[in-house]
Specification:
The chain has about 80 residues and is mainly alpha-helical. It contains 2 helices and no strands. The chain has a domain of about 35 residues.
Length: about 80
């Protein structure tokens, strides 16, 4: 069996105040999953960051969902005269 050691260097520390409900959810989630609370918070922040950047370009949700020529002006009736 091979062992792999991963090392991540965290460059910033953030101290925040959270509600008792969030603290309890974080504690339970950490205990149930075996994942450290800090990692859970980091992953949630990364997910929020990814989702917010997708929201900045809502039209990209439609990318690749339409069939037809890439240049609609080549279709009959759409060409300039």
């Amino acid at each position: 069996m091979e062992s792999v050691l991963h090392a991540w260097r965290m460059s910033r520390t953030l101290t925040i105040r959270i509600t008792d409900a969030i603290a309890e959810w974080l504690k339970q989630t950490s205990q149930r999953s075996g994942i450290p609370a800090g990692r859970i918070v980091r992953e949630q922040l990364e997910r929020a960051m990814t989702e917010s950047s997708a929201e900045e370009k809502p039209f990209m949700k439609l990318a690749g969902s339409f069939d037809g020529p890439g240049n609609l002006s080549t279709r009959k009736g759409f060409a300039r005269r």
